[in-house]
């Protein structure tokens, strides 16, 4: 696999919040999910990658070239969908497209019209009259209409209903059909990633806690349920997180084999991405 985007020792300070020593690579042909709870630094990471926030240190390369000094190439080859959607409210979709399209040397009008029709959007409609889901679809239509290699999206599914979220995941999979494509998207709705993500990066308080293939991550961990009587000083240590209720315990472990040897009569299940994420970031302390 070839690396498309490489982040080395990225540093960004924003008020009292820090990203430091951040390193990761986005590979061609992979959908990478950036996950973390509210305030963990997902938007800051993405805005710093895109140069919307000036970085305080480190390097970001795209196709081996520094992003800072190759703005034109980067703009043409990266499609961006941001949470806020930087649109002029008083313009129609057609007018807004006319502002944006000339910025791309390989703008594909036919592809754009196809997405507009597919998403049931109307070119004469004003941006101000679009619902949140329609805005997101318009942003995606724009991002996909200039033959980008990499699609970067910040919380594209937040506030969307399950039907539209599912449709968006289908579009991402379609986009990935072409060789050399890659998607990087942040979300705190981890269920969206179950179906589509190849790689997961878990960030908390500006630091990467996990960066590995989704399948390996879920194989490596287990959700274990059992009776209180099985817990003792030694077995408790086998869990990354452990919750006790009046009916028993439930915990996440990355020591599946040892745990099964030490604890009989437990139920061992494959965890969800959310189970694993909350185990590492102390889910009970966070508000979802
Ligand atoms: N302009 C700013 N000035 C100072 N601090 C900021 C600024 N923007 C964000 N922060 C802080 O940086 C931290 C990370 O915020 P960020 O928006 O990157 O998190 P996030 O993971 O995207 O959260 P969410 O899921 O809520 O969108 C938070 O503590 C936030 O309060």
Would you mind describing this structure in some detail?
This protein folds into two domains: 3-214, Rossmann fold (3-Layer(aba) Sandwich), CATH 3.40.50.300; 222-270. The two termini are 35 Å apart. The strands form three sheets. A six-stranded mixed sheet has the order 6-7-8-3-9-10, sandwiched between helices. A four-stranded antiparallel sheet has the order 2-1-4-5, covered by helices on one side. It has a four-stranded antiparallel sheet with strand order 12-13-11-14, with helices on both faces. α4 runs antiparallel to α5. With 288 residues, it is α/β, with parallel strands linked by helices. 32% of the residues lie in helices and 30% in strands. It is elongated, with a radius of gyration of 21 Å. The protein contains eleven helices and 14 strands. β4 and β5 form a beta hairpin. It has helices spanning 42-49, 71-77, 93-100, 109-118, 132-143, 162-175, 191-196, 214-220, 233-236, 256-262, 273-281, and strands spanning 3-14, 17-27, 31-35, 57-62, 65-66, 78-81, 150-154, 182-187, 199-204, 207-213, 222-226, 239-245, 248-253, 267-269. The protein binds adenosine-5'-triphosphate (ATP). Adenosine-5'-triphosphate binds at residues 14-15, 17, 36, 38-44, 155, 188.
Write out key terms for the chains shown.
288 residues, 11 helices, binds adenosine-5'-triphosphate, ABC_transporter-like_CS, alpha/beta, six-stranded mixed beta sheet, four-stranded antiparallel beta sheet, ATP-binding, ATP binding, Rossmann fold, 14 strands, single chain, AAA+_ATPase, disordered C terminus
């Amino acid at each position: 696999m070839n690396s498309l985007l490489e982040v080395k020792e990225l540093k960004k300070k924003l008020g009292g919040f820090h990203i430091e020593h951040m390193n990761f690579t986005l590979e061609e042909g992979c959908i990478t999910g950036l996950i973390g709870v509210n305030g963990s630094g997902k938007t800051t990471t993405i805005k710093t990658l895109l140069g919307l926030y000036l970085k305080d240190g480190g390097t970001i390369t795209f196709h081996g070239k520094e992003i800072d000094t190759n703005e034109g190439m980067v703009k043409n080859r990266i499609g961006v969908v941001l949470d806020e959607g930087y649109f002029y409210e008083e313009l129609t979709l057609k007018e807004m497209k006319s502002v944006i399209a000339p910025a791309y040397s390989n703008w594909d009008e036919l592809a754009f019209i196809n997405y507009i029709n597919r998403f049931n959007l109307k070119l004469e409609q004003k941006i101000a009259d679009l619902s949140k889901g329609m805005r997101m679809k318009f942003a995606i239509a724009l991002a996909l209409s200039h033959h980008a290699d990499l699609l970067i999206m910040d919380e594209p599914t937040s506030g969307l209903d399950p039907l539209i979220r599912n449709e968006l995941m289908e579009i991402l999979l379609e986009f990935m059909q072409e060789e050399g494509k890659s998607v990087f998207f942040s979300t705190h709705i981890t269920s969206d990633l179950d179906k589509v993500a190849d790689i997961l990066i878990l960030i908390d308080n500006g630091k990467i806690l996990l960066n590995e293939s989704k399948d390996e991550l879920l194989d490596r961990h287990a959700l274990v349920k059992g009776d209180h009587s099985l817990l003792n000083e030694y077995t408790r240590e086998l869990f990354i997180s452990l919750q006790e209720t009046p009916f028993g315990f439930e915990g996440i472990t990355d020591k599946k084999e040892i745990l099964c040897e030490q604890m009989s009569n437990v139920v061992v299940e494959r965890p969800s991405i959310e189970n694993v994420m909350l185990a590492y970031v102390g889910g009970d302390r966070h508000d979802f």
